[in-house]
Amino acid sequence: MVLSLSLIALVFGLLTAEAWILRRSVNAIALRIHVNGTRGKSGITSYIAAALRSAGIQTLGKVTGEIPALILPDGTRQTLKRRGPARIQEQFRIIRRTGRMGAKALVLECMSIDPALQETESRHFRPLIYVLSNIRDDHREKLGSTHRDQVRAMCQAIPPGCVVVSGDLENLEAISAEAKKKKCRLLVPGEWTPGPDTELPTGVFPENIALAAEVASQAGVPREEAIRSILEEISNKEATASGEFLNAFSVNDPDSTTVFLDRWREKAGMPQRMILVFNTRADRPERTDAFTQWIRERRGLFAGICITGDHRARAYARLKDLQPETDVTTFGPRQLKGLRQVLIDRYGKPLPVVGIGNIGGAGFRILKEYKA
Question: Are residue 82 and residue 178 in the same domain, yes or no?
Answer without folding.
Answer: yes
